[in-house]
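Fold it.
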Amino acid sequence: MKKALLFLTLITSLSRADVIGGELNLGYYNHAPTGTAQYQGDVLKLEDTLKWESEGDIFMKAYLEHPLPLIPNIKIGYSNFGHSGNGSVKKSFTFGGERFDTDRKIETKFDLKMYDLTLYYELLDNWINIDAGVNIKYIDGELSVKSGTQERSTDVQVPVPMLYAKVRLDIPATDLSFQAEGNYITYNQNTFYDAEIGARYTLALGVGVEAGYKTMKLDIQEIDDLSMESDFSGAYAKLIWDF
């Protein structure tokens, strides 16, 4: 009976306190490609050879924070990312061991899905908010080149451990804030990061809007025979609910 009363007292206390909080994000971002890709053949320029141009995609994030000591807060995320192109081959090239000749029409496609799990701690929580932790990003992607009956493609499925950090500045006596957030890792001549910096305005009941600049660098060397030295950057906008 005493244990039951103690448990009920604890649950009642927690329900009265603001112990659980979080945030939901739904965003759209534009990404313009620069750089190169190589798969069992020549180094290809993303814009000139693969014919990629600016594209737009969605991303989602969810944060869950609590006051329990030592146990990290949780963030999960999903990003859909893709580029496609078509045009004539100006100079013959080899991709996937296959030669694509000059003046042939080609279609190229790059589909990338990224799933994030982040464990982090709040290091500072007032008008300056600082979070730090670790991120596991699972990348599931495919790069393909097609010309008539010729087609070559490569798949990449790989988990990437990364460092995570976020800084947010709330402007006192206003509903305006600024924040920067990102993940980063470099190892064995491979570098990968994604980051965003933006301004946020909270309207009511924690609902707000945010806009800024988002960038991703993918510098990989022969992962499943695929090498890329590329940057994807552009503007973003998102709806947020901070509860």
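The longest helix spans residues 2-16.
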